[in-house]
Amino acid sequence: MDPPELPECPVCLQPFDGESTIPRVLACGHSTCETCLIDLPKPPFPRTIRCPACTQLVSYPTQGPSALPKNIDLLRISSSLLQSNPDSLNSKPKPPTVSSSPDFIPNFWSNEFHYNWKEWVIPRDTISVDASVALDESFLLGTATNSEASSGMSSRCLMKSHQKVSLFKVGSSTHSNENRFNYSYFAKAIWVLFKMRDGALAELMLILTASLKEYRICTAYGLWYNEENGDLYLVCERKHTTLLNVIESDIQDDISSFAMIGMELCETISRLHEAELVTGCTSLSCFGIDDFGHLFIDLNDVFMVGHRIQNMISETLSFAENKDSKRLEMYTFPSPELLAEFVKKRDIDLEFGKSTISYSSDVWSIACILLLFLIGKSFGEETQNFLCSYIFTLVNENGDDCEELHMAWLDKVSGLLDTKLGSDYVLMKDLLHKCLCLDPGTRPVVTDLWKSIRELIIKPKFEVMRSLEEKVINKSTCHCLLLGDLSWPLKKPDKVDKNGFKDGDLVVESGVIEGIRENSIKCTDLKGHLDCISGLAVGGGFLFSCSFDKTVNVWSLQGLNHVHTFKGHEHKVMAIVYVNREAPICISADNGGEIFMWAIKVPFEENAFKRLNEEKDWRYSGIHALAVSEAGYFYTGSGDKTIKAWSMHDYSLTCSMRGHKSVVSTLAVCNEVLYSGSWDGSIRLWCLSDHSPLAVLGEEEAAASPFGSILCLALDNQTLVAAHENGYIKVWKKDVALKPISAHMSSIFSVCMEGEWLFSGGWNKTVVVQKLSVDDDDVTEIGSISGDSVVTALLYWQGKLFVGQADRIIKVYSFGG
């Protein structure tokens, strides 16, 4: 038989010995050693601490743990056990067991996914889109065809600061708008991301992070969801001036200008390669010019160039007999190997094989742009003809003809270059010639091209690019944007697991949250009251509702049918609670100060078995809130600014708790602590063991009245939610206040919680659904349910959301599948 274990501290697991591990008794009755009490983190509430055993918030003396009584009984037990079994002191303490019960409602997406992407979603009203301006500008800049511009793929839009931006669609929503539940803007954006393929997400994150690190890559502001068409866009900065504007000016004869632009191009592409990104094709419109004359690359325009090449190749594949079915734009220069990859990908459902695209593919495009500056439009026309013929030849799988086409084109380019530069700049001509080799492996690196161009202006004494050259050359991997998942989205059926759920689907309980996810919410109306619904409670298989019509209705939870009506109140019934005891009862209170006790047994009795009255004077406005504790008390929040404790044994008034400066509007009990909210804007915490005050929240803020009266509270474990008359919600997680949330534009009359899910409703006739993150201090609005009347009461129970309204109707939302 194992020897009995010694009493030990719940924090350090060391046996109590009266010397180094002295047990101190907290107000909840649990004991913790004095040393651990000193080291425990203190809540932000003064003179309080959370018991490490039961997490209850209890009083804590200002003098420290030494002012708490010793647990003499535990010390006596420890002493007797040590005398009978001295070896027990050296026994290894057992680690505490942690229960991991599953969440009642699983997440729509993982917390890690939400954490990684939440900061990249920019607010709804950040972007201003003018379709007519976007169409005209896109067409004039030569960056989009009419069909593409009209589809909004390359729309030029404005941010709040009037900063021009470009948009590129990265995903679309598949949710139907014809549903009771309206997803929030943020939830729609995250949902599109969540349904994207892993490759596309990885590529998108690579672009976003690269734009922060490399100043030559256009700034990616984030992701914006267009609620009009359901598309998610990558938002990047855009400058009005691009290389397209420069090529149309007469600077080709100026070698210095050519050298400056060439160096800028090389530096920009080098920075892109530093981020392990390759385009494989660039256009003049892809390069913007900042306020200091430096070039940067617009990745959104790179994607648009890729789409236009795809469309052209698709037409060529469809009409192979028509060599001139569609032509490349004059200022677009895809490398031959990129065209080969595009042509190979005839079936969009097939993955790419091993790609031949490398950093040298961008060298081809740079060289073509430089030759365009040197030679002029004649080079653009020759190159356009060559690339169109090259594509046609690739489609017909004539590899030898491709080499012949390339050699013929290269000879023409060499002749044009000789005519332009004559016998000067031999090294430059040779280097540009190498950049246009058909074999990517024989092309020079970007840094060699940069140094050669730089020598046209100056011969520096220091090789400042040596380290950059080595860094780029030694890279063995790169990601080609135009061959990635963002440019080539796969269209294949979703995977189905053994349970019948598609890839990306979420398995959740069949409740209203499941209905939200499946866009299938069923609504049932409960009619019976003659005035505004003021409160809801559940227990014993029944739903209880109270109303301004001075009655309490009883509804069956099984069939949602009306069962009974309690009558007797002479004033508006303001609050109701269910008390689960051996003989269950329902307590209702009105604004005349009367409290009714109703026996919950079938058949129901017509009259209350007990009636109580609060004292009142001419300033009194009755009872506004009710709460019940497991310690044998129920509590009333009143217009006289007090909270009254009533004994459940003899229904006598035990005490009155004072401190609020206005009407006590709401009460809640959790972890043996009573929380009271008031019109004075503060929340007070009371210890239920002796009804003494513990702490006050929001008292300083209430003095300045930034949020107004507190109208309702909700509690779940260590999360406290308070709703204000100005539409704001304040949340405390583990006693730490989070940033206030502007959930509604007007008063919030009711809130309720279920695990991480928070429901709120009020004057704007809408129930807002939000999710409280477990891992961080984040609150995400998932969406809303629009109603026909002001929301006055909320209750969540076993997958059903009960919504009491001012129009006398109780709406029950549940999964409609």
From TrEMBL:
PANTHER family on file: PTHR44489, WD REPEAT DOMAIN 86
Domain Protein kinase: 135-457
Organism, scientific name: Lactuca sativa
Pfam families for the chain: WD40, zf-RING_UBOX
GO MF term (any one): ATP binding
Protein name: Protein kinase domain-containing protein
Classification lineage: Eukaryota, Viridiplantae, Streptophyta, Embryophyta, Tracheophyta
Every RING-type domain range: 9-55
Alphabetical UniProt keywords: Metal-binding, Repeat, WD repeat, Zinc, Zinc-finger
First and last residues of every WD repeat: 526-565, 657-696
InterPro entries: Kinase-like_dom_sf, Prot_kinase_dom, WD40/YVTN_repeat-like_dom_sf, WD40_PAC1, WD40_repeat_dom_sf, WD40_rpt, WDR86-like, Znf-RING_euk
